[in-house]
UniProtKB/TrEMBL annotation, chain A:
GO molecular-function terms, A-Z: ABC-type transporter activity; ATP binding; ATP hydrolysis activity
GO CC list: ATP-binding cassette (ABC) transporter complex, substrate-binding subunit-containing
Name of this chain's protein: Carbohydrate ABC transporter ATP-binding protein (CUT1 family)
SMART domains for the chain: AAA
Gene Ontology biological-process entries: carbohydrate transport
Annotated source species: Nitrospirillum amazonense
Keyword tags: ATP-binding, Nucleotide-binding, Transport
Automatic annotation (TrEMBL), chain B:
Organism lineage: Bacteria, Pseudomonadati, Pseudomonadota, Alphaproteobacteria, Rhodospirillales
UniProt xrefs under InterPro entries: BP-dep_ABC_trans_perm (IPR050901), MetI-like (IPR000515), MetI-like_sf (IPR035906)
Taxonomic source organism: Nitrospirillum amazonense
Protein name, per record: Carbohydrate ABC transporter membrane protein 2 (CUT1 family)
Family: Belongs to the binding-protein-dependent transport system permease family.
Protein origin, superkingdom: Bacteria
Record-annotated membrane-spanning stretches: 12-33, 77-98, 107-129, 141-164, 185-207, 213-236, 248-269
Keyword tags: Cell membrane, Membrane, Transmembrane, Transmembrane helix, Transport
PROSITE patterns per record: ABC_TM1
Localization (cell): Cell membrane
Length: 354, 279
């Protein structure tokens, strides 16, 4: 178990910065998700921690020891690759033994460690098989097994579930989470999937354009996103963004209708334009006479409820409802916005104002 | 009926085309064998026939007992095996570097290696001779090995590079995370997976060295260090050509190459990397 500290870490391959001034403290035993769209630098950041790439600037400490010039093999970190990277010419047992053999552990100890890990992952019957004789889910498990037999200082995961189908992915999410609870090892998990980040991580590091956008618990990021990027990345269906005007009395006016009233935030002139963020599931349906009038455009049934695509004037938004009312396209419904639902963003910078 | 016909026809055509190609490719070899087995008195007497009315192993006996062919054969074996080993080793190292490392001047090195493959070797025979003579490397098997290795390594390096490219980088990175140095990762993970590539490259270089005539003829004049392609010319004299013995020697010369490919064909066809990554 280890702490991982990044200070002012940057990376540039020569074509402009990929990572810019990353400061991050990963605590002992913590499960941290590095989350962002492809190209945001999350995998590069993981590879820097692993030692597979060298930082262009800044410092990386593992357990207080500066590791900038330490080879990957001497960092005692285990990594699970997106491709699994199983050694194709070795059996499952040999794959899992490889790291221990490199460390020259006695054979009896290796056998014991491999078999214990195999039991934990349900691989006992597959130990003598080669990777090509395994299904995708089994390969994924072997990759996990190869990591846990080592009992490393920390686990690094590089989008380990993205090659699995949805059902297996959900199961592996649970299993990785459970393993983490059992082993209590520091884990850094790279993903572009907000569901994975939300469900698995103790803390999420939201990355975009090579810079950290926000760090916090999944709920923190969901409820109080620092900016439009984080707000839009988390949640499915995603947050609605509407162009609104903030009146002097705190009324949020969209297309001539007052959606909600908020305490006017300091520093904003009355009549200022803001980007109004509304989570689809925070909106409620009402009689057309009561709430804001909106026209139903398209209705998607999810099973647990319905996602209604609504139009208010020229602007569109989604509303998620679980009340059993049947909505029909073209119908005009009323929409109620609870007073604590609106999030206000600066349309220029994207930063959240309130 | 019509449907069955439409389904079978492409397969039949396919098989016929393949058969025609195989016949075309193998016919010279068949002719080599046929002539080597034809007794001298029937060589010209029977006209052009697919198979002589009588066969004999006399030519083989003569070649093995009364010619210097066994010596040439041994020389060829030494030169080709040494060239195969040296060039493959050098090409693997170079190919790995081309495939995995970014270094200054890489484009230049690749360019120069390409250029070395571009001109006919005959124009540098003289300079090579001038270079090797003072070093005592003419009339020597070592000299041939040096020259063959030098001229085969560039192409072999490109070949090896493409084999290394086919092996995902993830694999050696995984090994490095697992506590291996880059060299250990190369030895334990990458090299075993490159066996088909090594076999193909080795086979290519071996065959190239085995059948090389120009340098062998120009650099070596003594029979003691002649390789068999140069030796084959000995069957052509001023007044006649001993086709029977020449062809028998040719068949014998084919054996090691054939045996070699039989040996490595397992690696050539085996998709060792299957199942390495993804599903």
């Amino acid at each position: 178990m280890a702490t991982i500290t990044l200070s002012r870490v940057s990376k540039d391959y020569g074509g402009g910065p990929v990572l810019r001034g990353i400061d991050l403290e990963i605590r002992e035993g913590e499960f941290v998700a590095l989350m962002g769209p492809s190209g945001c630098g999350k995998s590069t950041l993981l590879r820097l921690i692993a030692g597979l790439e060298e930082p262009s600037g800044g410092q990386i400490h593992i357990d207080g020891r500066l590791v900038n010039d330490v080879a990957p093999k001497d960092r005692d970190l285990a990594m699970v690759f997106q491709s699994y990277a199983l050694y194709p010419h070795m059996t499952v047992r040999e794959n899992m033994s490889f790291a221990l053999k490199q460390r020259r552990l006695p054979p009896a100890e290796i056998t014991q460690a491999v078999e214990a890990a195999a039991v934990k992952l349900g691989l006992t019957n597959l130990l003598e098989r080669k990777p090509k004789a395994l299904s995708g889910g089994q390969r994924q498990r072997v990759a996990m097994g190869r990591a846990i037999v080592r009992n490393p200082k920390a686990f690094l995961f590089d989008e380990p579930l993205s090659n699995l189908d949805a059902r297996l992915r959900e199961q592996m999410r649970y299993e990785i989470r459970k393993l983490h609870r059992e082993l209590g090892a520091t884990s850094v998990y790279v993903t572009h999937d907000q569901v994975e980040a939300m469900t698995m991580a103790d803390r999420i590091v939201a990355l975009n354009d090579g810079a950290i956008q926000q760090v916090g618990s999944p709920q923190d990021l969901y409820d109080t996103p620092a900016n439009l990027f984080v707000a839009g990345f988390l949640g499915s269906p995603p947050m609605n963004f509407l162009d609104a005007t903030l009146a002097a009395d705190g009324a949020l006016v969209v297309e001539g209708q007052t959606l909600a009233r908020v305490p006017p935030p300091a520093g904003l002139a009355p009549g200022a334009t803001v980007t109004l963020g509304l989570r689809p599931e925070r909106l409620a349906l009402a009689d057309p006479a009561e709430g804001v009038a909106a026209r139903v455009d398209v209705v998607e049934t999810t099973g647990t409820g319905q996602v209604a695509h609504l139009a208010i004037g020229a602007q569109r938004l989604k509303l998620f409802t679980m009340d059993g009312r049947r909505l029909a396209p073209g119908e005009v419904v009323g929409m109620v916005v609870p007073p604590d639902a609106p999030l206000l963003f600066d349309p220029g910078t994207g930063t959240r104002i309130a | 009926m019509n449907k069955t016909f439409a389904r079978v026809l492409p397969r039949v055509l396919h098989a016929l085309a393949l058969a025609a190609f195989v016949a075309f490719a193998l016919f010279p070899l068949f002719w080599l064998l046929k002539v080597s087995l034809t007794p001298d008195d029937l060589m010209y007497g029977e006209g052009v026939r697919l198979w002589p009315s009588r066969v004999t192993l006399d030519h083989y006996g003569a070649v093995l007992r009364h010619s210097q062919f066994p010596l040439f054969f041994r020389n060829s074996l030494i030169v080709s095996a040494a060239t195969g080993l040296l060039a493959t080793a050098a090409a693997s190292a170079a190919g790995y570097a081309f495939s995995r490392f970014r270094f200054r001047g890489k484009a230049w090195v690749v360019g120069v290696m390409l250029i070395s493959q571009m001109f006919p070797l005959i124009i540098i025979v003289a300079p090579i001779f001038r270079l090797l003579a003072p070093l005592g490397l003419t009339n020597s098997l070592t000299g041939l090995v040096v020259v063959y290795t030098a001229f085969n390594t560039p192409f072999a390096a490109f070949l090896m590079q493409s084999f290394f490219e086919a092996i995902p980088k993830d694999l050696e990175e995984a090994a490095m995370m697992d506590g291996a140095t880059r060299f250990q990762a190369l030895r334990h993970v990458i090299l075993p997976l490159t066996l088909p590539g090594l076999a193909a490259t080795g086979g290519f270089v071996f065959t190239a060295a085995w059948s090389e005539l120009l340098f062998s003829l120009m650099l070596n004049s003594s029979a003691a260090v002649s390789t068999f392609p140069a030796g084959l010319l000995g069957f052509v004299s001023k007044f006649s050509v001993d086709f029977g013995q020449m062809m028998a020697a040719g068949v014998l010369a084919l054996l090691p190459v054939g045996a070699f490919f039989l040996l490595i064909q397992r690696y050539l066809v085996q998709g060792l990397t299957a199942g390495a990554v993804k599903g």
